[in-house]
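Example record

The entry below shows one chain as it appears in the dataset: sequence first, then structure tokens.
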Amino acid sequence: MTENHTGVTGGALQLRDVTKIYDGQSTPAVDALTLDIPAGEIVMFVGPSGCGKTTSLKMINRLIEPSSGTITIDGDDIKGHNVDELRRTIGYVIQGGSLFPHMSVAANIGVVPGLLKWDKKRIAARTDELLDLVGLDPARYRDRFPRELSGGQQQRVGVARGLAADPPVVLMDEPFGAVDPITRQRLQDELLRIQREVRKTIVCVTHDIDEAIKLGDRILILREGAKIAQYDTPETILAAPADDFVEDFVGSGSALKQLSLARVDDLRIDEVSTARVGERVDQVRRRSAGSPWVVVVDDRARPLAWVRDRALRGETITRPSGPPPAMLDRRATLNDALDTMLVNTHTGALVTGDHDEVIGMISFEAVTEHMRTMNRAAQERSASKDDTDGTLPADELEAEPNTEATEEPKEPTEPERRP
């Protein structure tokens, strides 16, 4: 897909009266679905079980054939293409990554480019590019097999494989449903970071409304038969649900969910002292004078560890062992920030940019104060409206943004204490 002048590499997707009636059933699983998905946006499909969201998704790449209706990508009717050729031009990512167990990571990513007759040199270059994009070191991971990867790493490879042939549209079916909550948050952040770079058109099915709010440029809420209950931005759906069905589906506390739309880079990000692996210790000490902590980074400024200034030894900075510090993508939600700090028992977290480089840190106090400010503003807006206009009750608006975060996180003992 050629990048246009806006940086978008995705294609505009249109569904017109798309219907699916399975054999032996009188009621359509999807009934005359009409939808416009702008190029370069993430659209989340949500709705109750059996509403037709997965069927709708799979009709886009004809894993399920529509009974009637038209689906186009940039005006090109998908029915005019051979099914196998069509699927090679649409990315597809499912739960768990669905990697071929007998093939290496590189071979898994190169499957579709190989079917498209790319030469080996081009496939190898694209594989390394994508591994780097999803945060996996090509030299370390390209020759590994799926059994040697964690669940989160397998899902990253699955995303890389979905992007391998540079498709205009990427379909995702519950892509992060098989991983633990912390890994899920990190993968969501990773997807947002990747999307800032590639600007694909992504259609994603999820059962989690909070995930839809976090990831979606737009959210499609479906009733039974894939009837559209509401299709709009997360902000609009939360502030003005179309009807009782949408309000019930979004759930109680929608005013609090609005707070989760706030992102880390909406706050002030504090500077941190850094030390690059291989740098002279005396230079680091002079530069970080007055700061008790230093962030050790690799040659691409990606954080490796927090280190006490007084613990720096030797002539040069060496690569630390152990797990990396608590990190947040700059577009992570404030709820994610609180969860990360609470789980890691730290009073702060490092903030990373588009290429995982450290750009600063954010404190627990800054997050909670910002959420309190937003909460007070929401209360004031509510108080200025008529009680009959459908706004949420005041007692809900007065609730804390995150009940777990009303207390300071437990401080770790030395030497684990972090900023």
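Notes for this example: Residues 210 and 257 are 8 Å apart (CA to CA). The longest helix spans residues 364-383.
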